[in-house]
Amino acid sequence: MVRELQKKDIDEVAEIWLDTNVKAHGFIPARYWRDNFEAVRRMLGQAEVYVYEDEKDIVGFIGLDGDYIAGIFVRSNQQSSGIGKRLLDFVKGEKQQLRLSVYQKNKRAVSFYEREKFVIQGEGMDEHTGEKEYDMIWRSGNDE
Hints:
The protein is of the alpha+beta class. The chain is built from four helices and seven strands. Strands 1-2-3-4-5-7-6 form a seven-stranded mixed β-sheet, sandwiched between helices. Helix 1 (10-24) packs antiparallel against helix 2 (30-44). The longest helix is centred in the N-terminal third of the chain and has 15 residues, at 10-24. It is globular, with a radius of gyration of 15 Å.
């Protein structure tokens, strides 16, 4: 089930954020993610965040800033089970367009977004990590 983030969820969601980033981005030192953990934890309570919850646990979440997807994060033992797609489909139902940036080296994520009808609009550089990114966009009506 997808629902809005509640204050009681923040610690659990922050741990998912850290674990997922460290595992998905082996090309970025883990220390980078750990150094940003507390700042992200504080920002979660102020952001537009939707969680995916199974019977008892939060297994993933999506964070938004307007129509910009800050990230989709799913527990590593639950990845490739459709949870990221369910979260994305939920926000697609709420927005006319969605934008995001994804590390070029994160080929699994790039492929996922391409399957979900996101189109590469340009390339950039993450000033914090020095890694190349793709800027991608999805527009309502592109899913047919």
